[in-house]
Amino acid sequence: MPNRPYIVGNWKMNGTRAMLAEARAIDRGAARYPSVRVGVAPPFTLVSAMAEALQTASVGAQDCHAEASGAFTGNVSAPMLGDAGASFVIVGHSERRAMHGETDSMVRAKAEAALAAGLEVIVCVGETEAERDAGQAEAVVTGQVAASLPQGEGIVPRVTVAYEPVWAIGTGRVPSVDDVGAMHRAIRAQLLESYGDEGAIVRILYGGSVNAGNAANLLAADEVGGALVGGASLTADAFLPIVLAAASPDAE
Ligand code: PGA
Q: Is residue 215 part of a domain?
């Protein structure tokens, strides 16, 4: 089922072992909706325990270093994540781009490191509010896609793009369904440009204040292949209705 919708929880810097029970509840829910692919990205400290605890949902990380090993105090490499049980890595999240100075070329290097370690990768892109107000949103986002996407032989089936407008993350504000569709079409065009025909198979997730109330609408927008969910992924009660919305796009 290569095109089944993909719903991914990004726990950010939240979660201790006490929250593994919540992850198990998410996993049991995921098992009820086999038409949806579910992933959870906890902090590094929980990757191993969560990978052991979950059976249906895949477990990923929120960042990796571009090098496989070395004198990089405090960093974690993609092969280490694979060893801990992760199957995917989110790279280029706007919080990392903004707070850790990650550039498109750094994001690309991290994505390529993740793929080289046998992991899947979710590459995040998105414009700021000022860029949208200036009418530059599509140019900024397609530029990020072009410059951050990993390159290499046979990698495309393991690449996902997440479009997350920076101004929609954690704010409760979301773009209109029309604006989401327009941006996802622009990203698809760039994927075809970057990867040729294979660009058609890359899932494009929407992220930014997705919740149980707006998920069905956002998931119905053009070219939306799933969602990257922050705040509403921390409990099964908040997250599973989003998974359900992906399973039944016509449901309320
Ligand atoms: P949010 O975060 O759902 O809390 O807005 C999304 C994200 O940053 O991935």
A: no
